[in-house]
């Protein structure tokens, strides 16, 4: 079985500051890992994904994440926060393949950006 | 290319009623997955349909059911609604089944169901 832990439910940063959203996963098989963003009253949009290629993954809107197997982590970072980054962020894991492959999401983290 | 569409966007029902939600996937996508999003439980997988067959199912009671049509459009039905069924129901489509190698899921805007 797979699971995801996102520590904390809310992160607040100043505009221009570093964004760091933490994600730790548990998986009995090599995982695929994802970060999604959800803006109010909208569905989820894929920010980036790890599918066993490069461990440092670059996504849209200046976000990136690094897969660290030894730490079972996939933290999301952005060097400089923008007001438009305020949203809810979800980390997700799934098996690479197999009949039971499905996305398992963390609880989500709300990011606030202060002017 | 049109994205995933879900209808209706908002729905209010009373306890005991039943409800049907609809999802139209992106053209060419054959897999449709459904998720329930609530403040307490977060995002939870309901089920996946691929080529009109249910391929995977989450841990939800039998009151939650779905189906997929030959044009890949999908519906989910909730019978005997309970207050706890109030949630945002999200649909996601992808080209292939989640059981195959990675293929991105594209999410619709969701249907907000309120049960009174």
Explain the overall architecture.
The complex is a heterodimer of chains A (115) and B (116). Chain A has 115 residues and is mainly beta. Chain A has strands spanning 3-5, 10-14, 19-21, 24-26, 31-38, 44-50, 56-58, 64-68, 73-78, 87-95, 104-105, 109-114. Chain B has no helices and 11 strands. In chain B, strands 2, 4, 5, 6, 9, 10 and 11 form a 7-stranded mixed β-sheet that branches. The radius of gyration of chain B is 13 Å and the shape is globular. At the A-B interface, strand 6, strand 10 and strand 11 of A face strand 5 and strand 10 of B.
Mean pLDDT of chain A: 91
What composes the largest sheet of chain B? 7 strands, mixed
User: What radius of gyration of chain B results from the CA coordinates?
Assistant: 13 Å
Largest interface: A-B, 26 and 25 residues
Distance between the termini of chain B: 37 Å
Number of helices of chain B: 0
Encode the helix/strand succession of chain B as letters.
Answer: EEEEEEEEEEE
Q: Helix proportion of residues of chain B, in percent?
A: under 10%
Strand content of chain A: over 45%
Secondary structural class of chain A: mainly beta
| Quaternary structure type | heterodimer
Tell me the overall shape of chain B: globular
Record field, number of beta strands of chain A = 12
Helicity range of the residues of chain A? under 10%
Overall pLDDT score of chain B: 93
Task: Calculate the terminal CA-CA distance of chain A, rounded to whole Å.
Answer: 41 Å
Question: What is the H/E string of chain A?
Answer: EEEEEEEEEEEE
Number of helices of chain A: 0
How many β strands of chain B by DSSP?
Answer: 11
What does the radius of gyration of chain A come to? 14 Å
